[in-house]
Design brief:
mainly alpha; elongated; 2 strands
Length: about 120
């Protein structure tokens, strides 16, 4: 199976960040899920802006660090309803775990180095 390019990963990241930010504003949900999704959206966008790949703006983080942050973020997102169990309803757990699994699947299938171009040639 062909791996997802870092450019495609960048596009997915920006769509993912936008979706995580917009979702709690259009779908009524608990305050805990709202905060988790908003924080995750901000972290995803910041991580993408700082990564050394085709769609990064500031190019500070290597791609492997970016993927490590994605994994940590997924684990925290899945565990958030358990950490806030007294204030959280069980309906939040499937949403956050599902989003975490999607993110982990994307990370597992992503290249770790961006393609370089010089005079139109990839190397």
């Amino acid at each position: 199976m062909k791996k997802t390019s870092t450019k495609a990963h960048g596009i997915i990241d920006y769509i993912h960040a936008t979706s995580l930010f917009v979702l709690p504003r259009f779908v009524p949900m608990e305050p805990v899920a709202n905060r988790v999704l908003t924080g995750s959206a901000i972290l995803t966008a910041t991580n993408s802006l700082l990564t050394k790949y085709e769609l990064g703006i500031f190019k500070v983080l290597p791609m492997k660090a970016h993927l490590g942050i994605d994994i940590a973020q997924s684990v925290v997102m899945a565990a958030a309803p358990l950490a806030f169990a007294q204030s959280s309803k069980r309906s939040t757990l499937p949403l956050l775990v599902g989003l975490s699994l999607v993110e982990l699947a994307i990370v597992a299938n992503c290249e770790t180095r961006p393609k370089r171009r010089f005079l139109g040639f990839r190397f």
